């Protein structure tokens, strides 16, 4: 990923490195988001809209992403598992509204 990496993306990449064989669903507020190759794969397998982060960057430097609402994540996880994929979940450990720094 060219350019500066945000603290959130650094955390995501660290977790992804620890679970390279899984689709990593990363909790951000009310959504579980997937990035890069996981986003491309999940968008195809789950019929989700693939979008990007970093819209101010050139198109080739943007991070592919897709997400699902937290209240329906179990159904999406079940669909991925039924298709033979492993899924890793990264949860927020405190309320982002009251947190200082990275949650």
UniProtKB/TrEMBL annotation:
Keyword Lipid metabolism listed? The answer is: no
User: Is the DNA repair keyword given for this protein?
Assistant: yes
Give the signal sequence positions.
none
Stored Gene3D superfamilies: DNA repair protein MutS, domain I
Family annotation (InterPro entries) = DNA_mismatch_repair_MutS-lik_N, DNA_mismatch_repair_MutS_N
GO terms, molecular function = ATP binding; mismatched DNA binding
Q: Name one Pfam family in it.
A: MutS_I
Family matches, as SUPFAM superfamilies: DNA repair protein MutS, domain I
**One biological-process term from Gene Ontology?**
mismatch repair
Could you list this entry's UniProt keywords, alphabetically sorted: ATP-binding, DNA damage, DNA repair, DNA-binding, Nucleotide-binding
Location of the DNA mismatch repair protein MutS-like N-terminal domain: 6-103
Q: Which family does it belong to?
A: Belongs to the DNA mismatch repair MutS family.
Q: What is this protein called?
A: DNA mismatch repair protein MutS
């Amino acid at each position: 990923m060219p350019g500066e990496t945000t603290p959130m993306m650094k955390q995501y990449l660290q977790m992804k490195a620890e679970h390279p064989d899984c689709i990593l669903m990363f909790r951000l507020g009310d959504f579980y988001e997937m990035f890069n190759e996981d986003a491309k794969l999940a968008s195809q397998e789950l019929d989700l809209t693939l979008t990007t982060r970093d819209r101010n960057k050139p198109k080739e430097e943007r991070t592919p992403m897709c997400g699902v609402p937290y209240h329906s994540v179990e159904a999406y996880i079940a669909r991925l598992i039924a298709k033979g994929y492993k899924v890793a979940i990264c949860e927020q450990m405190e309320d982002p509204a009251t947190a200082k720094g990275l949650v």
